[in-house]
Each structure stands twice: as structure tokens, then as C-alpha cells.
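A reminder before we start the practical. When you read a complex entry, don't treat the lines as separate problems. The point of joint prediction is that each chain is placed relative to the others, so the output describes one connected object in space. Small molecules and nucleic acid strands, if listed, are placed in the same frame. In the example below there are two entries. Take a minute to note the order of the lines before looking further.
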Amino acid sequence: MMRISSTQYHTTMNTALQKASYRLEDILQKMASGEKYSLPSEHPVTTVRMSRLYREEAALDQYRDNISALQSRLTQNEVYLNSMSDDMLSVRDLLVWAGDGSNTSEDVSAMAQSLQPLLDSMFYVTNSSDAEGRYIFSGTAVASPTVSYDATAPVGSRYTFTGNTEAQRVAVGPGVTQPSNVTLPEMAGMLNQLERVLTTLQTPGVNVNDPAVRADITAAMDSLDEVIESISGRIAGLGGAQNILATLETSHANVSLSNKQAALTLGQLDYSDAAVKLNGYTTAVQATQKAYAQVSKLSLFDAI
Amino acid sequence: MSIIYNALSGAMAAQAGLAATSQNVANVMTPGYTRQGVLLASLAPYQAGQLSAGSGVAVPALIRFSDGYKSLQMWSAASELGQRTTAQPYLTQLEQVMGDEASGINSGLDAFFGALNAASVDPTSSPLRQQIITAADALAQRFNSLTQVLSNQRSAIVQQRNITITQINGLSNDIAELNKQIAATQGTGVNPSALIDARDNKIDELAGLVALQVVEQADGTRSISLRGGQPLVVGGRAATMSATTNPDGSQTLQVAFASEAFILPKTGLGGELGGLEDYETKTLLPMIESIGDMAEQLATAVNAQLVAGFAPDGTPGTPLFEYDSSTAAGMLRIRPGVQGSDLAFSTSATAGGNSENLLALIALRSSTVTLPGLGVVTLSDASTQLVAKLGMDSQQNQAAMDTAQTVRNQAEESWKSTSGVNTDEEAINLMQYQQMYQANMKVIAVANELFDSTLALLG
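Here is the predicted structure of the whole assembly.
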């Protein structure tokens, strides 16, 4: 049986109250912040897990931003390509009309005049640039125009392709990239053919039934057909790319949702548990205080 | 006549008992007070003869209720507690700074790589490039502010160590002085109990500062030495502890006693000094080195990748980061005057829109760095693992601290059980000695009446 000194009661009470206040303060802080763990030392392994989840979330957010920026860029490309395709179909109609043997040279000269603005339109759209002046269809050589025009060269070689065919790749997933640009190396060749046929049709006294003229018109139409097909192929490719991006976006969204749920499970305070603990600690403090009040009244000096 | 002398001795013994009890009751709240009692011994008869019962009671000495072993336990518990308690505030502060998601290095790295990622949509865009420069600058600032916190902690440790050494020297001197006084009382016959209590209190304080070995000497003095045997107090003489700063910023401690000087070992000191040493060598310095290494390896990798590429205007790439280990506030910086148009994302001098180098920069996120204590980790995971290790160190220290507190509480309780004052007990003693006094007075009265009766006979 151990002997108890008078100050032992007070020391015990002090220690108990201090421990209880510490626990109460801790629970109150956690309830205010909603987090189960305020410091890494409370659960180091969970801290590591949550930190890694946050890193993945940050990366996914960026990928999703990139995907939506890329989607608008691809849509823009598609709009330009559609405009070019429309122009090319109009040119084709004109050439078919011009190839009719019953046309006079004045007729075809007038047709050729309607051909020029279409040619210019296609040239300008091919050389589209963004807000900072970088050419969209030049591949990675964005400082130089896609197609350059040299008026001093002979007709049929005035348009040259001055871009390249390299792809600009955008990161849309971990280790996953998607090209964001379309390159148009075939436009220069086709524009040269069209300029040649335009010049031919505008020469005074041209006869449509002349085999040389016919050959020019046919060559131009063949070139046009090839390019229309390749542009249509590109537009289809853009559509395919949009589908891939939509799939990736859905996949990222799902992973992100599951990450967020995991983070909640790991790190969010269980309020019902906390409320029960708070109750428990408060009761313990009250009981200790009442017991102390009783015990400290006892003293033999009151009796003698 | 021996009746009167017996009763007188009884009354005086009762008075001595009452005095001791009053001293105990007066000191019930005094910390470190050891209760005292009277030792009563009955005296053998002076006169020869079968009918002589005895010559009363004597108080040869006062009893001091103390158990030397319990004191030793208290002191060793104080050292352990001091060691754990000192390191904890530093650990908690570092945890709070490094573990904060919003302001830590991890979210800075996220922002930097996020900006690089965003630029891959349009590598030639000026606003996106500027965002990268801004994110790089913000990342450098986070490294710097963390390094500043670590550096401040190191200064604080040096200060705290110096203060602790001053306290140790002060306490050693006080203990030596008290030792002298206690030894002197053996000659003068004064009760040394209060002096012993004062000295033991000082030893307790000292034990919290550094781990001690205490040996009781025959003359009542206590000799104190460190765990490694270096003397702090011998009899009435005290040693002096001092710290010298080495060129690398660490401190070497030494103890000078008489004409000898002892260099103290780095580990195993115990108490506050040991706690500071533990924290500095096991947690703080490796962390400083890790953060510095991480910053250096990040800067080197990014710069090397940039220099291998070409800016949009075709010029070869230039570095983005500068690493300077000599200052804490400017350890990692972006190169002054760097602009978005300097960033070399292209792998070809002629194709300004090429983003292959940019994609290589983005891939640096999963490149590896080598950190002390962790080994090879990926750049994106390095800070997480450093925080986790810190968390585990802190958790261990907290658990050890709780244990040390419990052990100390129990040691104190045990000490009080022997030496503490119980007022109920003293009240009983008070009653008993009072009754003893009254009974002895009554005996004197009766003896007086007997004497008067005898005188009356003679007329």
C-alpha cells in the first residue's frame, strides 16, 4: 500500500485537466477545419497517400484544360479547311463550265476573272495566322508563311510551300500527346496549276477546244480533285481526333472523381465520431472536477 | 527526583516532535521539501539498582524521510523528458510549414509543370511562356522561404544551446556552493535538511538540461558528472562548460574542470542539450541538405534541357534557374532578365513552333533525384517523402515524450510517497505529541505533590 502525500491530489488533478484541455482543443480544431489529421505526424502514411492524390489531381486538371484548348483549336482548323474545300468546289464548277467546248474566248475570259478571287481566297486562308502572327498551317516553322508568292517567277512556279510537315504535339495525358496542327504541303502545287490555267484562259483569242488548253484544264481539275480528297481526309482526321479527346476527357474525369472520393475517405473528419469524443472528454473533465471538489474538502484539521 | 527529570525529558521530546510537525505542516506546499520526524530513544538508568526503570527519553537526531534511489529515478526521468520536450516544438513547426499543401514545394512544382503543360497547346504563345517564368519564380521563392525557415531553426538551436550552457554553469556553481555548506554543517551541527533539499532541487533542474550521474560522498556532498564521466561538480568545485563554433556552423562542447579540459562527444548527452543535438543531426541538417540537393538537381536538369534546345528566334537555349548554396534567402533564383521568348522549346533552330524540347521538359517531372536518407526518388515524389519522414520522426518523438512524461510523473509520485507531507498524518502527530506533552506535565505536577507531601511530613 503506497503512502499518498497531500499534494498528490492536486498534482493528479492538474495533470488530468491539462490532458483533457489538450484533447478538447485538438478536437475543436479538427471540427473547425474538417480534416481528420492536422499534422503529418498524426498519420504519416495517410499524408503520403493524400499528397500523391493531390499531385495526380493537379496533373489531371492541367490535362483537361489542355484538352478543351485543343478541342477549340481543332475546331478552328476544321472551319478553315471547310472554307478552303468550299472554295475548291466552286473552282471545280467553274472549270467544268469553262471546259464546255461551246464557250467563246470572251466567255472563258469572264470565267477566269471569277476564278481569281477564289484563288486569292484560298491563298489567304492557307496563310491564316493566330493573334500573335504565327502561321497555323506551316507545321513547326510558324514564323514563315505556309505558301509564298513570288511575282517575278514564271507562271506555274510562283507559289512555293515554305512551311514544314512536322506536327505540334500537345500533352493530353500522362505520356499521351495529340497533334494540334494540320500541314498543307499540297496547296502550293495546286495553286500553281490553277494560276497556269487562269493565265491560259485569260489569253486573248483562246480556243477551248485547243488540245493544249484542254490539257491545262484537265491537269488543273485532276490536281484539284486530289487536293479536295486530301483536305476531306484531313477534316475526317480532325473529327477522329475530337473523338479521341472526348474519350480521354471522360477517362480523366472519372479518375479525378475517384481520386476526390479517395481523398475524402482518407482525410475528412468523421463528425459523428468527433462529436461523441467531444462529449466523452467533456464528461471526463466534469467528473474529475466534481471528484476533486469532494476530495479536497477532506482534512483532519477541520475535525480537531 | 528521577520522576521529574523523566517527565521533563518527555516534555522536551514532545516539544521537539511538535516542532518537527509544525515544520512539516508549514512546508506542505514547498516543492522538493523532505518531511522530517523525531527519532525517540529511551535512556538507560543512571543509577544502579533493580528498581530503576530508566532515565527518560532522548532525541538523538531528526529523521529525514528520503530514499536516495527514488531521487536518482526522478533525475533520470527528468533528463529523458527534457530531451524529448526540447526537440518537439522544432519538429512541430517544421511539420506545419512543410506539410501545408497550399504553400509547400509540392504545389509549387505542380504549378511549374502545369504551366509547361499548358504551353504545349501553343508553344509560341507569349502569355503562356510568361506564365512559365512566373511559375518558375514562384517555385524558387518557395524553396528559398523553406530554406530560410530551416536556417532560422538552426540559429535558434545555437542560441538555445548557449543559454542552456549558461544555465548549466550557473546550476553547477550553485550545487558546488551548497555542497560546501552541507559539508560545513557536519562540523557546526546545524540541521542540513533544508540545504540538502535546495541542492537536490538544483540537481533536478540540472538533470533536465543534461543527463547526469550522481554519487553521494561520505561527507554529505554529492559529486555530479556527465553520462560519459566528465565531472561537473566535485565537492565544492564546479566545472565550466563552453561551446565553440566550427567553420561549418556546428558547435563543439567542452567541459573545463580545474586544469583539465574534456571535449564532449556529439551524441549521448541527454537532457535538453541531447535533444537539441539529436534534432540538429538527425532531422534538421539532413533536411537542409535534401532541400538544397533537390533545388540544385532541379535547376541543373531544367537548365541542361533548355540549353539543348533552341528559342523561337533560332538562338540556342539559355538557362532558366540559378542555384547558389551560399545564401539562404536567394538559394534558387530565375536568371535575371530572362523572358518568355528566351525559353528554348524547340529542337531545331529553324522550326520555331517545334515543341519536342518542351515535351522533354515536361517529362523531367518523373526524372529522379538522389537525396540523403531517402536515396533515389522521382522529382514529383521527393517532397512528399521528405514530409512523410519528418512526420514519422515527429510521431516517434511524441510517443517517446508521452512515455517520458508518464515515467517522470510516476517517479515524482513515488518520491512524494516517501518524502511528501500528508497533512492528515501531521494532524495525528500533532494530537499525539500534544497529549504526550500534557501527560508529562501532569507527571511533573504529581511529582511536585509528592515532594510537597514529603516536606509537609518534616513540618
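Discuss with your neighbour: Residues 126-188 of chain B form the longest helix (63 residues). What might explain this?
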